[in-house]
């Protein structure tokens, strides 16, 4: 990154780059993203920082959003086929409630649901 921003493109001086690295190390998140936003800020002010942040963050955000949409779609499609009786509906409802209100980890919910399913069927 230093070679590209300082030596090749000349967008930052060595001191500006090192300031960006030092500043980025004090903040949470990936160092590369912090340095890129710092370079955008130095070049074009807040608009540059926002533009570089959007360009750096948007691809992974959109990928996570697509995966979440695929999972939600699978739930919508598979639920009517798998929740066919009252005990299964109860397990699903209790699992959702525990997940949302108690923040119980998913593997624990799967194990508890499997045990409940075995005991009820």
In short:
With 121 residues, the protein is an all-alpha fold. It is 85% helix and 0% strand.
3D structure, described in words:
This protein is an all-alpha fold. It contains five helices and no strands. α2 crosses α3 and α4 packs antiparallel against α5. It is elongated.
Structural class: mainly alpha
Give the fraction of residues assigned to helices.
over 70%
SSE string, helix = H, strand = E? HHHHH
Number of helices: 5
Separation, N- and C-terminal Cα atoms: 59 Å
Average pLDDT rating: 88
Strand proportion, as a percent range, falls in: under 5%
Our Rg estimate from Cα atoms comes to 24 Å
Molecular shape: elongated
Number of strands: 0
Main beta-sheet annotation = none
Pick out the low-confidence regions. none
List keywords for this structure.
elongated; 85% helix; 121 residues; 0% strand
Write the layout of secondary structure elements.
Blueprint: H1 2-8, H2 14-25, H3 31-82, H4 86-102, H5 106-120
Helix pairs in contact: 2-3, 4-5
